[in-house]
Amino acid sequence: MLENEIGSPALNELFSGVLKLKTVGECKRFFRDLCTLAELEAMGERFEVAKGVYQNEPYRVISKKTGASTATVTRVAYWLNNGQGGYKMILDRLGRKLHPGSSRNTSKKG
Fold first, then answer.
1. Which has the least CB within 10 A, 37, 46, 78, 86?
2. Is the model's pTM score more than 0.85?
């Protein structure tokens, strides 16, 4: 199903190109050219929400901390728990490199 949703040749080439980026600076330059500031801010907000959900924070706390609506928090939580596993993959790989003060609550298996 994922291949049908986002498997066009253009998107496959885009994703392959992203894999060629080597530094955060390169990512910033590429994504700034590709996306509007509003799109980048929305992605950043969703990622912050995902971190909060991943760390088992209450949705209202996440909403207040990030400025995201509770509907957005709920939607991100749905994809974190029922999606393709992308959020969890990245958050697991980042591990302790999450924002200062972030620590994953490991009391709940995920």
1. 37
2. no
pLDDT truncated to tens, each residue of the chain (110 aa)? 677 788 899 999 999 999 999 999 999 999 999 999 999 999 999 999 999 999 999 999 999 999 999 999 999 999 999 999 999 999 999 985 555 444 444 433 33
Query: What Cα–Cα distance (Å) separates residue 4 from each residue in 11, 76, 94?
Result: 11, 21, 28
- Contacts (Cβ under 8 Å, ≥6 apart) of 79: 87
Residue 79 Cα distances to 26, 49, 72, 83, angstroms: 27, 11, 11, 4
Angle at which helix 37-54 crosses helix 59-66, to 10 degrees, equals 150
d(CA 72, CA 92): 22
